[in-house]
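ok here's Solute carrier family 25 member 1:
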Amino acid sequence: MQHKGTFISPFPRPRCLAAAAPAGKAKLTHPGKAILAGGLAGGIEICITFPTEYVKTQLQLDEKANPPKYRGIGDCVKQTVQSHGVRGLYRGLSSLLYGSIPKSAVRFGVFEFLSNRAKDESGRLDSTRGLLCGLGAGVMEAVLVVCPMETVKVKFIHDQTSANPKYKGFFHGVREIIRAQGLRGTYQGLTATVLKQGSNQAIRFYVMTSLKNWYKGDNPDKAINPLVTGAFGAIAGAASVFGNTPLDVIKTRMQGLEAHKYKSTLDCAVKILRYEGLAAFYKGTVPRLGRVCLDVAIVFIIYEEVVKVLNVVWKTD
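and the structure:
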């Protein structure tokens, strides 16, 4: 008999990892392996895709309220290279790299921790639970890593467009931001970041879980070719871009050097809509689409392959 007020968890009771993989059933990924594999995947991926992230952020900061500085993606790249050389496309990489490794580590660690408890007796994770696990992973990475990391990155990139750049490097920039604005200065746009990351990972893991379940059919242990994993990751990335680009635009504005113009996340959204129109919420979509599809594909490929290696050298069963 169920008592009134009793909370019923949507997840099955957790099973011991050591006893989680009987014959014929899918193995569970140890959270420790997920943290290590996720960190490696995040570091490699950001080194490959950062220039597109730089261009996306520049275009979003190039507000219509002022005379536009850039005429498009190509013009943004051209002006940056002419003014700062090719290295200019990597301005702010250090701040993103320092955050990308722990971000992916937290994301995959939390996802595997939650999904190990959400899988059924055959080791299968259904799409709905995949979405919930992704949501939890996204919220945790937003609070612990993404918000301070993204705030510093956006300030670095925005600082380069000013007449007299004041940040000389990652640690100098962080010191200056904290000295001038306190620790809160690295947590601007927290609400928008939590909404963005939570929806991002919910969408991505929902799509990945759905595609992997479809591909594996009734065999949860069926191997997936890395190219297939990459294709699934690209599809998941594209879905997340179209699903939450408006939140990404709001988050970028809230973390820029002119964030003081906005009273809150809602106020930022209202002002963008009022002064720039609905299309402004999709500024930077094309460069973001290219970056995110490549980003998610690379991360999932590297993550899955590193986990395979760790399963051989690190026995947790």
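+1. The chain is about 65% helix and 0% strand.
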